[in-house]
Specification:
single chain, mainly beta, Pnp Oxidase, Chain A, 7-stranded antiparallel beta sheet, 3 helices
């Protein structure tokens, strides 16, 4: 096997090169994007777009999500200890923009598609699913906190006869549509 160690960036040898390759490597990964919502003690809604959420356990229904400690919604999550994770679709691109930009913070919940759910949390009626969680643990790591949420409620979109919406993913610093094409009766990723 050829030795390629000389082309692998190492943190201690060249931090700038390592950081650049790390950023490019993370950006090249296709990951799901969701809207995390919460409320503060006065009932005001807060939210942010997250790309670092994942199911944790089915036997103890739970989700883990990493939130930047500088996010405007961070104090509300810490104080209320509740959040809702909304899995959005490609139909929600305009709404995602509101949750990614601080200058659009005031319009995040202006959409007609928001509803009030368990724990008074906003959930998105157009999402494929929404998970209502109570924070049962957290771990600070660098500039993020990983919250473990016990899932106390689930809302699923009833698509009925309508088409299944395309999931929304994040790759190379931008949202992307995940599309499938039908060919010979089989669905294949495009």
């Amino acid at each position: 096997m050829p030795n390629t160690a000389s082309v692998i960036s190492h943190f201690e040898k060249n931090q700038a090169e390592f950081g650049e390759k790390l950023r490019k490597g993370f950006r090249a990964s296709a990951i799901s994007v969701s809207l995390l919502t919460t409320r503060d003690d006065e009932g005001r809604y807060h939210g942010l777009a997250v790309t670092s959420a994942a199911p944790l356990s089915m036997s103890l229904p739970s989700i883990m999500v990493a939130v930047n400690q500088s996010a405007s919604a961070y104090p509300a999550i810490q104080d209320s200890c509740v959040f809702c994770l909304n899995h959005i679709t490609s139909d929600d691109m305009e709404l995602l923009d509101r949750f990614c930009r601080s200058d659009m913070r005031a319009s995040r919940f202006a959409s007609y598609a928001w509803r009030c759910g368990l724990h008074g949390l906003p959930y998105l009626e157009t999402a494929t699913s929404s998970f209502f969680c109570r924070v049962i643990g957290s771990h600070d790591y660098g500039d993020h906190t990983v919250f473990v949420g016990k899932i106390e409620g689930v809302w699923l979109k009833d698509h009925g006869a309508a088409r299944d919406p395309a999931p929304l993913i994040w790759m190379n610093g931008a949202p992307r549509r995940l599309a499938e094409h039908e060919h010979d009766g089989h669905r294949r990723p495009s």
